[in-house]
Design goal:
This protein has about 650 residues and is an alpha+beta fold. Among the domains are: about 1-150, Zincin-like; about 300-380, Sandwich (Immunoglobulin-like), CATH 2.60.40; about 535-640. The chain is about 50% helix and about 20% strand. The strands form six sheets. The chain has a five-stranded mixed beta sheet. A four-stranded mixed beta sheet has the order 17-14-13-19, with no helix packed on it. A hairpin with a 2-residue loop joins β15 (about 330-335) and β16 (about 340-350). It binds zinc ion. Zinc ion binds near residues 124, 154, 158, 177 and 180. One of its GO terms (cellular component) is extracellular space. This is Aminopeptidase. GO terms for molecular function: metalloaminopeptidase activity; peptide binding; zinc ion binding.
């Protein structure tokens, strides 16, 4: 149980070629005549038993430091040279988290170790964090984006929320996980600015909204299995709720409350009510309404927004109707008229709420939840003109993102198309990528100016992911003139650029591209799986099914891109009907691996269902080896049920 804290001593006797890692300090190492060695690790500060850790194996230890304490990265030898590209921001994060919490890092060292076949993504064992193998990325991936940076922040921040102050019970798990999840927002906001933080929050909120967890409370006293608590509600919803709480309290009280909670309960345990008391103490505000609603109640805000204009007395009434449960919350409404905007802050606490505001000139945009802090689904009917104005004038990442998504549906409108082109120069790279993904170059001869801008992005954008997205767009034009650009891209260090260049070249010269693929190492091919799978599917090359099978599930379920999902869904169908034993085996293994890894999103149950369907497909087929294939599929299902 998480409230049984203790100190800890561990002795590990291992073959002397292995290194060991555990919590706390390595006190001694004793070699024995039989070629083994005993390592003695001691953690002299109290922590919870679920944080105890033993690691043994052949690792390269890459050394770093923070304020005089050891910060070590244990990786496979092959990744020694990139260990600092993966983990090297850890000391800077330790400084940032120490500052923002007002509580310096409390432990004697900080080690991170990467292991194979780990049961989940990562785990915050005190001073000995373990990461799954996905943490280990090649240079070509790291140039594009370090996909593990958020996880590194998350596990580190547990050394304040989780390891230092621990959830008193699994029911209160969110006091660990919501903060660890929110730390990624805080880190991105600090290091890269609000756009990246808000883009990340958007993804987290989508994960919650799509999980159909509306009936689950953040703090749950009745659950079947403690593993059930490790879900998107404890993590992502909790994270969004903290973000709202920060808005309700203001930054000063929010961070002071965090500090108060950590100091009050350090090396002990706490539950959500104690979190409430910590924030109340520093803010002087009663927060029962907030905690009862969000921590001990379920659901989220659902609004429909309508507007009534009175052009005789120049007022607009904004009607806010709550569609589901009635929540109480502060709401920001921005009214744009003339060259400026006016922010109105109101409280919503009824099912139907109306707020009337005066204006001098008819507003060009009314932006409800202008701060974008609410955990809410908002149905707000805006015109295309509103969205074009919003894209150009409203500052938040979501203002631009939502506007761009709508504008992209109306590219036959000249102003809409021009606004979409403007998004190619957005300061935030994910907006530039979104614009590239959505741009429609049908009737390309009228769109020379846009194409020139895309060429420019393909060559010069400072983000390799944007260059890659631009190359993909140019590839669809099937213009032989781009051949030098694509060939240059095939020598890029960036896997994203390499992959998109490969596929773009394929559109103009199939043979040259297939020859090129054959020269790539197996390892590089794995990292370019999306492009190569795309090509193999186009080629209808059955001998490549085992390769495709290794990537089909990630493509279907882990990609946010609809076209990628569609492509892999077709490949999935192709594999499921085939008699290719290796492909069926690879697919089954991947189901088992991802099913276990994403159990908290119920992927294990979905995997079992899909394997069951595959069994049925094979039963109906005329494949001669179908009995053998069905056995492989059923063995996979059994592994997920155990
Ligand atoms: Zn966590």
């Amino acid at each position: 149980s998480p409230n049984q804290k203790s100190t800890e001593e561990i002795y590990m006797t291992v073959p002397s070629k292995f290194v060991t890692l555990s919590n706390g300090e390595l006190i001694s190492q004793t070699s024995h005549a039989d070629g083994t060695r005993t390592d003695y690790w001691k953690m002299d500060k109290k922590h919870a038993p679920y944080l105890f850790f033993m690691g043994v194996g052949e690792f390269s230890i890459v050394k770093d430091t923070w304020n005089g304490i050891d910060v070590n990265y244990y990786v496979e030898k092959e990744y020694e040279s990139v260990a600092k590209d993966i983990f090297g921001k850890t000391p800077e994060m330790m400084t940032f988290f120490s500052t923002i919490t007002g509580v310096p890092y409390q432990w004697n060292k900080y080690s991170q170790i990467v292991v194979r076949d780990y049961v989940s993504g990562a785990m915050e064992n005190t001073t000995a964090v373990v990461h799954g193998e996905a943490a280990q990325q090649k240079k070509g991936q790291l140039i594009d984006n370090n996909e593990w940076e958020g996880t590194i922040a998350h596990e580190l921040f547990h050394h304040w929320f989780g390891d230092l102050v621990t959830a008193e019970s699994w029911s209160n798990l969110t006091v660990n996980e919501s903060f660890a999840t929110y730390s990624v927002y805080l880190w991105y906001e600090h290091k890269y600015g609000k756009d990246k933080a808000n883009a990340h929050m958007y993804d987290d909120v989508q994960t919650y909204l799509q999980s159909q967890s509306e009936g689950k409370k953040l703090v749950r006293f009745y659950y079947e299995n403690r593993e059930d608590m490790f879900d998107t509600v404890s993590y992502h919803k909790g994270n969004a709720i903290l973000h709202m709480l920060r808005d309700v309290l203001g930054d000063e009280a929010f961070f002071a409350g965090m500090k108060n909670y950590l100091i009050e309960h350090k090396f002990g345990t706490a539950e959500a009510q104690e979190l409430r008391l910590s924030f109340e103490e520093v803010s002087g505000k009663d927060l029962n309404w907030f905690f009862n609603q969000w921590y001990y109640g379920d659901g989220h805000i659902r609004l429909s927004v309508t507007y009534d204009y009175n052009t005789i007395i120049n007022t607009v009434t904004v009607n806010i109707n709550q569609q589901g449960k009635t929540f109480k919350f502060p709401l920001s409404i921005d009214i744009y008229e003339g060259n400026g905007k006016t922010r109105h802050n109101v409280w919503v606490n009824k099912t139907r709420n109306s707020f009337t505001f005066p204006f001098n000139k008819l507003p060009k945009l009314i932006n409800v939840d202008a701060k974008h802090v609410l955990l809410a689904e908002i149905d707000d009917k805006k015109t295309l003109e509103n969205y074009i104005f919003q894209f150009k004038n409203a500052p938040h990442y979501l203002d631009r993102r939502y506007a761009l998504e709508e504008i992209a549906k109306h590219q036959d409108n000249k102003e809409a198309f021009n606004t979409l082109i403007k998004a190619f120069s957005d300061p935030y790279y994910e907006i530039r990528i979104l614009a590239l993904e959505r741009v429609d170059l049908f009737q390309k001869y009228y769109k020379k100016e846009a194409i020139a801008k895309i060429e420019n992005l393909a060559k010069f954008d400072k983000k390799t992911l944007v260059r890659a997205a631009a190359i993909e767009v140019l590839g669809k034009l099937v213009e032989a003139g781009y051949r030098p650009l694509f060939e240059k891209g095939m020598n890029s260090e960036s896997y994203a650029i390499l992959g998109k260049s490969l596929f773009s070249l394929y559109q103009i010269d199939k043979k040259a591209t297939l020859d090129k693929i054959n020269t790539l190492s197996e390892d590089t091919k794995e990292h370019l799986a999306e492009s190569i799978t795309n090509i193999y599917i186009n080629e209808k090359d059955k001998t490549k099914l085992p390769f495709i099978a290794n990537h089909v599930l990630s493509g279907m379920f882990l990609s946010n891109n609809k076209r990628v999902q569609q492509l892999y869904s077709e490949a999935f169908k192709w594999i499921s009907e085939s008699n290719n034993k290796e492909a069926i085996t690879n697919l089954t293994d991947d189901f088992v691996k991802l099913g276990k890894m994403y159990k908290k999103f119920n992927f294990d149950k979905m995997a079992i269902n899909m394997l069951n369907q595959l069994v049925y497909t094979q039963q109906q087929s005329s494949n001669k080896n179908k009995d053998e294939l069905i056995l492989i599929l059923k063995t996979g299902m059994a592994k997920l049920i155990e």
